[in-house]
Amino acid sequence: MINQFKGEHRFLSNFHMCNVEVDGIVYPSSEHAFMAMKTLDESVRKHVATIDSPGDAKRFMKTQEIRKDWLQVSIREMSKVVRAKFMGNADLAEKLLATGDEELIEGNWWNDTFWGVCLKTNNGKNNLGKILMEIRDELKRKEKAMCNNLIIAGSRSFNDKDLMLERIKALEELGHINPSTTLICGMAKGADLMGREIFLRAGLAVRDMPAEWELIGRGAGYVRNESMARLADIALVFWDGVSPGTKHMISCMEKLGKPVYVVRF
Q1: For position 129, which CATH number holds?
Q2: How far apart (Å, rounded) are the C-alpha atoms in residues 33 and 28?
Q3: Are 250 and 153 in contact (CB under 8 A)?
Q4: What angle is formed at CA 149 by the lines to CA 147 and CA 155, rounded to 5 degrees?
């Protein structure tokens, strides 16, 4: 049993600092993102994303008007935020899987009996812990489904080979990459060609799918992305937060309900 989210298990806490993208906005932590879900005002959400600490974000939202349906949707929104946290950070997904079958309890001393369990009374619904265990089960199911076709794509400015190797290794450890995996490569400069080089050097299969610019014209990149997504089982995408082509690749995978690990740089 893991009954407190601190020390080596701090990553389970919503106060753990990591990029979490929800509804097109990148937040510094899942606590920031969850606080932002308390409003439907996008300008307020964007402001929350600029606040330095999770605690400050929580305090700020106490000054704002909360959406009228919050009590009805809070668990759903927490699930969305926590899922974005672990699906968007392969290293955290790996750590969550490493907890095995341990019961995850958000033990606390501040009498939160809704999201966690108060350690003074040993009472609480532990809704956050339940959500984490549900996501862990989802990751386990995906781990069993070995990846046959992988996309590595991203912004043309990406040049961090060490970071790419680190993320590829994380996917291997999750079971998403195996000797029979084929890389689907869009042949663009940056992340695409770097991934291609890594796979070829490792003796793994590569399927090149360059955009047909001369035949299709300006929309060729988007057409290629859609074709790649239909063939892929999973995608590892390195995004600078600006590139529209990379954002489209992410969107293509999400629309098909396929896992996409987004690494912001």
Answers
A1: 1.10.357.40
A2: 8
A3: no
A4: 110
Per-residue pLDDT tens over the stretch 189-247: 999 999 999 999 999 999 999 999 999 999 999 999 999 999 999 999 999 999 999 99
Domain, as residue range, for 26: 7-142
Could you report the per-residue pLDDT of 97-128, keeping only the tens digit for each?
Answer: 999 999 999 999 999 999 999 999 999 999 99
Give the chain's end-to-end CA distance (angstroms, integer): 35
**Residue 130 sits in the same domain as residue 14:** yes
Does some domain include residue 81? yes
* DSSP states of 207-265: EE----HHHH-TTHHHHHHHHHHHH-SEEEEEE-S--HHHHHHHHHHHHTT--EEEEE-
Residue 1 lies in a domain: no
- Note the pLDDT tens digit of each residue in 53-96: 999 999 999 999 999 999 999 999 999 999 999 999 989 998 99
Asked if the structure places residue 2 within a domain, the reply is no
Q: How many CB atoms lie within 10 A of CB 169?
A: 14
Looking at 84, 117, 142, which one is the last position of a domain?
142
HEC per residue, 74-129: HHHHHHHHHHHHHHCCHHHHHHHHCCCCCCECCEECCCCCCCCEECCCCECCCHHH
Residue with tokens 């929580």: 58
Per the structure, how many domains does the chain have?
A: 2
Question: Is residue 27 located within the same domain as residue 91?
Answer: yes
